[in-house]
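Hi everyone,

Forwarding the result from last night's run.
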Amino acid sequence: MLSQILFPVRCPYCSKVIDSSQPSCRDCRELARPINYRKVLESGYMCVSAFQHEDVWRHSVLQYKFYGCRQFYIPFAKTMAELIKNELTDFSSYSVTSVPMHRKRKSERGFDQVELLGKETARLLKIKYKQCLKQTVLSNHEQHSLTRSERIDNVKGLYRCAKPKYVCGRKIILFDDITTTGSTLTECSAILRKCGAEDVLCVTLTVS
């Protein structure tokens, strides 16, 4: 395809051009294999992350999120699909959603990196993606710039369930890119639980 010639998929860890069916180049294969770090959130749900937010993994996620490496979502999704298969024997009974970005921030950045990752992972797993949450208030601060206590306060009241009838009785895989305190995922998973979700598994690329 012309788009693959003009915008080839690159390895997130060394930037070599790779086949779009692979999570990395051959040399970086071990770096792309998820570790499945687990952390219980204050909402009571489990968060599973592929990598620690350090070294080459931190660099690759920040390149994807802030520095224009949009196509990293393609190989990252291969890793996230493997992470979910490792974690859930019944993943086919789940639907995927993601922590939403406010429409103004999405317009400024040009894309929602978590939504892209969630949709592509759902496609690989052959399960449904549905954006069930909405950020209704634009925070004055992004989470990565705040202290732990500030992050918890910063997310209160930012989100609501956009599809309560869809969520009720369903098992949901909730995507985010990075978790630090877990405050965003705690808030969003608690909202899904209040709307009747049967189960919520939170997943992220990295954890710090």
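Strands lie at 37-40, 46-52, 94-98, 133-135, 159-161, 171-179, 199-207.

Cheers,
N.
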